[in-house]
Specification:
The structure holds two protein chains of two kinds. Chain A is mostly helical. Chain A contains 23 helices and two strands. In chain A, 61% of the residues lie in helices and 1% in strands. The longest helix of chain A is centred in the middle third of the chain and has 32 residues. The two termini of chain A are 29 Å apart. Classes of the chains: A mainly alpha, B mainly alpha. Chain B: It is found in: Endoplasmic reticulum membrane.
Amino acid sequence: MAGSSHRPRRKRKELVSSASSNGTVTTDTSTSRETPAFPLVAFFWPAKGSVSQWIVLPCILMVVGLFRWCTAIWPYSGFQRPPMHGDFEAQRHWMELTIHLPVTHWYFHNLQWWGLDYPPLTAYHSWILGKAGSFINPSWFALYLSQGLDDPDLKVFMRASVYISEHLVYIPAVIICGRHLARLHNINSWEASIALTAILMQPATILIDHGHFQYNTVMLGLVVASISSMLAGRALWSCLFFVGALGFKQMALFYAPAVAAYLAGICIFPRINIVRFIGVAIVTVASFALLYVPLLLGTFYDTYRKVPLPSDITLPPLLSAVPFPVSEKAWYYPYLVQLTQSIHRIFPFARGLFEDKVANIWCAVHASGLHKLHNYDQELLSKAALGLTLLSILPPCLIIFFKPRRELIPLAFATTAWGFFLCSYQVHEKNVLLPLLPMTLLLSTESGMKPAIRAWVGYANLLANWTLFPLLAKDELRMPHAVLTLLWAYLMGLPPFDIKAYTQSASEGGVNLLTKLVHLGTFAAAIAWHGFELFVSPPTNKPDLWIVANVCLGAGGFGLCYLWCLWNLALESGFLSIFGLQRQSAVQEKKTQ
Amino acid sequence: MADLYPTIPQCAVVATALKVLLWPAYKSTDFEVHRNWLAITNSLPFNEWYYEKTSEWTLDYPPFFAYFEWAMSQVANLFHPEMLQVENLNYDSWQTIYFQRATVIVTEFVLMYALMLFIKSSPAISKRQSHAAALSILLSPGLLIIDHIHFQYNGFLYGVLILSIVLARYQKDWLLVSGVTFAALLCLKHIYLYLAPAYFVYLLRAYCLGPRSIFDIKLFNCIKLGSGIVAVFGLAFGPFAYLEQIPQVFSRLFPFSRGLCHAYWAPNIWAMYSFTDRVLIYLAPYLKLPVDREAVNSVTRGLVGDTSFAVLPNIPPRMTFILTLAAQIPALIKLFLRPTWDNFVATITLCGYASFLFGWHVHEKAILLVIIPFSLLALKDRRYLGAFRPLAVAGHVSLFPLLFTAMEFPVKVVYTILWLITFLLAFDQLAPASEKPRVFLFDRFSLLYIAVAIPLIAYCSLFHQIIFGARYEFLPLMFISSYSAVGVVGSWLGFLVVFFTS
């Protein structure tokens, strides 16, 4: 390891103006004058050519940082909204309980008032933030007394904690991942910077984390770090990061099949590599162990101090599922209780098929009145969900398993996550961030900013944002939602500002006619929907009509995004070449030479 | 032709997005001031506008601004009438905030238009430079801090100023329009009176007198210009003259009861003077100087009112006017002898400098009077840029104390640093070499000066509070204002040298 880090960095050739492979520059055929293909490129025009990355990168970070912080000025979910408040209170409460209660109580404490139901890494993260916040002002996290607090200084602290966490994990991960992608696809650093800005300005991520209030970017950042390690050929690091992501937020499971398939694939193809396989297995187990070490050490300390568990608890049902008889006297009993209780909290199997209104298949089928699902047995429904999810993720996982090529990673991740989002059990509308992330990463791949890919990435992002509107409207975040969504659409040269991405012919890197119709039709419908939502109140017997319409259209669009990702994955992997379908890719050509 | 990207409208879109996101940010009492004016002009009859005093924030801008508020209040009436009641003191419902903040953004289009005209008016050889300068004004952190967070309408007002300056650059016939526009600007906000000498001299020499000889008086031009200006002032003040309210109006516009330094010292000569006085309080016993014990407390607190000095002699208002005028006269003479457009803009800048540095009760926001005209010239050649750099740093750093809330702190600092990096680097690449040699060591001075800003801001915003808590609150303010004063004075001296040697 040490030896490899000393090898001199290869200076890549900078071919800025002449070989623009990525669709950022349009050249007028008659005058050969170059113009930016969409407004975001225009902002990088003065930096074209000579300006150092040491200046461009800090400037990008300052700009995206400003937009994040200015979003944070707006209200958060549950602001001055008793009795339960919202995600802000949940996160604040976790800081309160982790710093005041003994470790063994963390996962047992009152579930009704935002009980801790995230994996241990979130608990440790809350503990650190709670300690830091108490150092500044102990009343922010005073046990029980601080519940529902809405002190303006507390808001600044909490917002800053999201901002700093994101800058420690997500932002460096995206920068490094962008570099790896650019190297893999032969993209010059100027275009890579443009793609980086587009990814970091993704409105849904900013709105959920800095507006609504959550720490998704920590989990997403660890996932990107994992992808980045895969791109760099460091499988063991990718295991560590991915376990970290799972350990921060269980929703990272959306990606787990793709990760497993890829890691299994590189151990078998092109030749079986037992050493690598053992390494991956050991690191994964060790990472999980590491994840639980602080919790178990805390349990050890509490057992040593003889701190009793809260009196009113019920032991986790999982404990009885342990395949061997467990004695309460056994030395390992307290640890087993903690492990099973944390898993019980993290995966609440008892909840319904979907929560609130989310643009996935189940909710769309149910809410649209196509087929009412509450007549069915929960058991049956969860099995159906499981079956359909498996069916939807099987093709991408098989492809990435048999062809574990690095170029396929973003598409495989996106397809799998879309499959999960659309078909699985217990999905939140916010989870759309998971499929969006790898799909948006496509912008920094070869021809990623040509209309064909830009239109689809833009479609997915704008549609996802639109399905988040009801949630954000509840949080009084209509204005930042409109501003950030429209700004991104403007910068990327997408409707409602520009339809140039749809006017190029398919042979010049444009999209085909069907895509044009579907995209423009969806955008028109979404705009019309906003008009209805704003000016027409829904019929009294159907008060949720607008939200249902939103969900159904969203689910349809996301289904198309899933299919598009799957199709491109199949095309890129070369599986369709037996049917004579193949994508001409410079990367592939280079590989075959 | 060069590729001028990003274009002004592209930048305006992105800047507007950021400004809208700033709507719920901190707003100063100026927000309530302007809401009160909306209410006064909408709900009271014309003859009570300058007498109304339910709120302490009485109408103290000239009549055109009152008309402007009246026009906006007509729209506000359709949108949310509650904000238009004079008795609704400190009313800030979200509709009021949305409306008032939106008017700032919308009226700033004047600035955008003026800057586009500026680019259009510049010769092909300096198009790129003009484009960069225009963007630097459009995206100015000064305007972001003062207008979009603190709350004022400077974007609109400076838009009118630049419009009037740019109109003077077109053919000679447009000088009349330029003069009339400037007269209208004076009736919007009378702070621009400080720049009036430059306009007077330039219009006199270039429009009213012949190009060859100063005895070749163009009588028709004089009549046109005179009647134009009289018409503008008649529109503004005529109705009040008819109502015999002129003394009342003027007592509102020029409140002489205020002190030499504003509550927070603007970074000018008087800030340095006060700083010296502070230091002398401690040195006086050794130097055997008499100390005015009563004055010691008043200076530390920096209260509004009559500032008195403990050791140094007090400054009467007359003194500041004489100094201001004296500082303006050399530039005016040069402009009279060589009435080119570049000299005109330089003289406007120097008038701004003089009034800011020596004026009575100068507010730190007035630094825009210097920065904005100077920006139009900063890319003329490297020597001008050398003088511009310390001003760009000092002027914007001196605005930081306007915002003191934790949430807005990162916005002002990061935005200003971003602007400084982007534009100082871009200017550095674009400014053409000068024919004359550089000012001796001036560049070294400005580099050192810029470097000092970083620890200073860190100390004032963070370490002071950690070390001293709430004690010595005046100390960071005094440091920032003295530091900025050094920068502004330094850039003024640099600019004087450049202007009079070229």
